[in-house]
Structures
1.
Amino acid sequence: MSIEISRLVKQYGQQKAVDELSFSVKKNEIVGFLGPNGAGKSTLMKLILGHLYPSSGTLEVLGKSPRDIQTKQHIGYLPERTSFYTNLTAPETLFFFADLLGMEKSDANLRVSQLLKMVGLDGIGRRLVGEFSHGMRKRLGLAQSLLNDPDLLLLDEPTAGMDPVGCREIKDLILTLKKRGKTILMTTH
Ligand code: ADP
């Protein structure tokens, strides 16, 4: 099992954002977590990432507590809103994150060029991220979330605000990732 959640509760003061939630995600499965704004989707993502702690209930990610440091190396995360330096190009952005991950230069070179190709950002010259469309930023975010070659991908609203063609491209990419053995939990409206 990649994710196992039982009777999970997250309360902010009086506000219950997650209320007795139980479900599991098997290896190599794509699971969509559906709900309107305020349903608690982002809170769930943050709980799985170990950025927030549950008020009660249990939560296991890749067989361990979300607070386990080793486990984090096997997780990729695309937040709802990506934050990138606007004055860098797409490759520079990915090299910056590869550096933070402690990747060897030669591994990073190979990985960055593979990922840029995969998300369709390989032929855009030296355009700066600040000039990117919404869809291009999402695709760059997806590439960033894949830098560490994670087993488990958490995608928060990966298609929000995208036009139908962009949506289709992201969904096709998600299917490709499943074929490559990834487990994917994504949220959507
Ligand atoms: P979603 O991602 O589905 O839109 P959220 O997880 O962001 O939902 O929010 C779920 C509920 O928890 C909402 O009612 C929201 O106002 C509340 N909430 C989210 N984050 C906080 C916070 N840091 N403090 C207090 N309430 C919060």
2.
Amino acid sequence: MKVLLTGGAGFMGSNMIRFLLNKYDHAQVVNVDKLTYAGNLDNLKDIVGHPRYTFVKGDIADEATVENVFRQHRPEVVLNYAAETHVDRSILDPKAFIMTDVVGTFTLLEAARQHGVKRFVQISTDEVFGSTADGQFTEATAFDPSSPYSASKAGADHLVRAYWRTYRTPTVVTHSCNFFGPYEYPEKLIPLFITNLLEGKKVPVYGDGRQVREWIYVPDHCRAVDAVMTAGQPGEVYNIGTGERLANIDVTRKILTILELSENMIDYVPDRPGHDLRYAIDSTKLRNELGWAPTRSFDQGLASTVRWYRENEWWWRKIKKGEYLEYYRQQYGRKT
Ligand code: NAD
Ligand code: DAU
């Protein structure tokens, strides 16, 4: 099985490469990654030199790069993880989101069509559905994105669906809830809060902290994508969720409890513009049709995640220098 996995130097892409190489003796993985601020070869330190792994530094929106990769490596499966992913950054500077998430996905789809891949899996998000006060998003819920990030993912997902309807390119889309676990860039809620607290800094809770997110721990997400890749039906859409829905303030309190710190470490800051109040994903289809179910609770995953960040300070301390500081200067400049 020849897999082209894009964005494999990022958080979930790097975890998925490790998963595929461990699970399948016959899997060959080509990772195409632009190495943006979020791409980090440290995430793949243990994989470098693996006989069934190849890294190509490249932009998925660049036609020549993508064509070369398809010609040279002849992938049967494409797993498109590459994206600009951080909502706050999309609010500060949306252009890269359009270029990578929309144009990049289009460029990959065209190559997949021309080269006749057997499966194209688009790793997408529950954010395309917007916010729901008390319901759940099903696969049929209409897109209603709020941020430039989620709008760019929605645009890409429309293209992916259209390639099946128009050209019969065998595409599948996943809509996942929030991931968390090892190697997550410390700008997202959970790794930002853990690392800030390990550094003795406060944690910035947006607004009143009552916004609700649904959470999935890394290995359960890898297993879900594996199920979709191997058994999902072309042209279908699968929601990936756990049902573990928590308000941000409750996630924050759980992290404080694990680290034995008090609520004095919370800094309530002005809200994110256009902040979605609540995500809740109905993953019945994935469970019933593909037999997937999560294996770890949020609390188990969070305890392991805190342990990982404690034991891997070398990884996140390197990141929290340089470009990261400039981003936070802009971010807090906007809020205050
Ligand atoms: P991430 O931000 O950690 O990593 C993204 C990776 O993509 C980086 O390695 C980056 O260098 C690479 N990349 C960016 N632009 C590129 C380009 N033009 N060409 C090639 N590579 C490029 O991402 P993540 O949080 O692991 O998310 C992975 C995927 O899952 C994304 O598509 C995201 O939309 C989706 N998703 C994420 C979450 C989440 O909670 N993080 C939830 C649902 C869906
Ligand atoms: O739902 C899936 C999405 O989850 C993915 O598609 C995105 O790529 C991923 O970034 C994530 O988006 P969120 O906006 O939900 O994640 P983030 O970690 O940025 O924020 C989670 C919640 O915590 C959100 O309600 C905003 C809030 N928050 C976040 C940060 C970074 C804070 O209160 N303070 C913060 O400093």
